[in-house]
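Example 3.2
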Amino acid sequence: MTRSLVKSRISFATAFLLAGVIYLLLVSGGIFPFAQDDEAKAAVKGVMLFATAFALMWLGIRRSALVPIGLFLYIGLAIGVLALNRSDHLIFAVEKIDGAIVCSAAVALLLSRGYLRFGESELQVAFVAWAFCLLILTVLYKLQFGFFERGVRFFLNGPIVYGWIMGVCSVISFHLWIEKRRLVFLGAFFSFFAALVWTESKGSIMAFVAGFVFYLLSILRRSPKVSIALVVGLLFFYFFLADWLLELISDSRLAAIGRIFSGELSQADDGSVGVRSVLVEKAFQDFQGNPLLGIGLGQFSLDEYIYPHNQHVEIFAELGLFVGLLHVVFVALSFWRATPLNRAVILLFAVGASFSGDASYLRFLYAFCLLGFLPTVARSRHSRNPVLSHE
């Protein structure tokens, strides 16, 4: 075995470990060991605090990254601390601050430093490899406790978060296939997509479709061969597979997706779509009653529900107009600065945030938004092939 091959394998192994820390940071919900009535979750977050600190000490932090990350932390934590004075649910409020602000900054720093240390593609490959290992473990877990039972956890997470991760891994795998032209990544794309459908999470699937379609549109005008192949593939799907697929899902939760767009919601949808519309309407009412400062962080409540299942609306309802507009401007500016791949990921998580999760889940969206402001990104904006670069 040559020395260069040994170095390459060691490099990938360390990138794989870093990808694991990033993956677990995203799914754990934060790094401060606080959690509502869940000691196991608090312990996991404490472990992630140690792992994140160790990874940052090993990778180092560039001074040029301190300004955007520091500004994000200063503004986010200032808003959060001030909001705590108006909250009756301090632990829940702290969880939101931890997830949306602290965890987002940690993930963005690790991603940025990982791109510099290992290269963008290698870290993406490592992340996809890590996610695929978790996919195998999830299949084994579900085979033991209920493969098609949606109430059984998808190993580390519930169906919604797992669906988000499978969706973003599908987009990244497709990007790697376009970049490297290796069939293994196309196989990974279909595997992650199948896992996404397996979750039967309507919001996650619609989020994936939004991000993936945007990525496809961004590369069509730059790669004629890929454009032709995609058009042929879509025509084949439409004429030979679409009817079969619609019939297959007609009696499943996924059939509600078509009813959402047609407006023909049935009584069977009340447990999901119907309830979410009521929660969002209640959040709008809360915002209208307290437009400037909101009702307070963690103060939303309707029966047994403690968040409106729409993170964008939740920001406006609990923190008011100015913080809500700051959220919109931050996401929009990040989207404008990003390359097509990162835009697709931002769009995927922004759409996903419209269907489920409380504000702590903004870590998925904010982490990739922050990448657009870090120095590793600025350099790639001037690369020869903007489709294959990443901010």
